[in-house]
Amino acid sequence: MIGLIRVFTAKDNEVLQSHGEMIQKHFGISVLSRSIPDQPLGIYDDESEMAAIPKIVELGIELEKEGCRLLIISCAADPGIQELRGRVSIPVIGGGSSASLVARALGEPVGLMGITEGVPPVMKDVLGDLIVGYNRPEGVTNTTDLLTDEGRRMALEGARSLVNKGAKAIVFACTGFATISFADVIRKELQIPVIDPVESEGLIAANFYKQTD
Amino acid sequence: MIGLIRVFTAKDNEVLQSHGEMIQKHFGISVLSRSIPDQPLGIYDDESEMAAIPKIVELGIELEKEGCRLLIISCAADPGIQELRGRVSIPVIGGGSSASLVARALGEPVGLMGITEGVPPVMKDVLGDLIVGYNRPEGVTNTTDLLTDEGRRMALEGARSLVNKGAKAIVFACTGFATISFADVIRKELQIPVIDPVESEGLIAANFYKQTD
């Protein structure tokens, strides 16, 4: 079993399970999802990240005790990944590092998209010179905005503007697009590869998890 | 279809197809394998690499013309990857970069193994501080040596010595181990993950290829 950490306090079970279910469906591995306590808004600045890290570490330690053989921190910023790696004896995979490294293997210029102010440092570090730009769709500040026709239209416009800047692939710099399967929309409309943190962490996690079955 | 470039002149069809067949079997994508002309010994020093690069580029251009939608340079050194990327309009995946980036996503200290003098620069660049050591099994200078009981014993010893140095995973710095499925031997005997360039290039290539079916 793989343990998956959501870095916010999930309001309901459907939201909690969404990343894990996508990974189970795509890669055929069982996932146990848990979310950190008392942070309904998740991580949105340095302070909230500092508050989340010890909770992420504690949750990871628990998940290892409960029998998980690999952990995923399901967030594009890889919050607490070094801290957790230092505290458990099983591998820890991060959404941001996985997506960036998978994108780097493609070797093409990429456009990044997100719904927050900037690009997580881990993604900037790995992708560096391959980044042609970052787009935050106009009027979109949370994943709910992406559920409207207008939100989707603006997000698709954003992806198109990155292609016009020379991007040969789109990398999502947040996991919010995964929940609404926005990668498939871009693939269909723009016919280019999309690298999604949830898909990427699943790809990498499954690759390692399946080796020692 | 994916085009796969072998960076030596294959003596027979079985040898030519071996990497492609492994990728087809593991990832369910069709692969067309070709080898560069007039280099039966492949790439073994700077001069032979310089000789190979224009042939790799030419072969890649041909494979794109024949309808391939993605190319693989199936070698741990990624020879000619930048040159080829500059000449075709489809993605080019390298064995060395794919293996290193997949290993980096695991985030654990790794031991590298190969049958040549040193580690390909592309792998050193990506893995850097994660490398605990490089092992070339004693008495093993080509893949044929790995087919003997003694060769396999020495290679397994080599892997074990890297684990003793702190490696949590083994990364193959050449594709020669793939042909003999040596990754499975290490996984079974040492119970640790193994990152093989042929498996990794297949994982990455399939991930992108399947997006735009």
From TrEMBL, chains A, B:
Give the superkingdom in one word: Bacteria
Note the Pfam families from the entry. Answer: Asp_Glu_race
**InterPro entries documented for this protein:** Asp/Glu/hydantoin_racemase (IPR015942), Asp/Glu_race (IPR001920)
Name listed for the protein in its UniProt record? Aspartate/glutamate racemase family protein
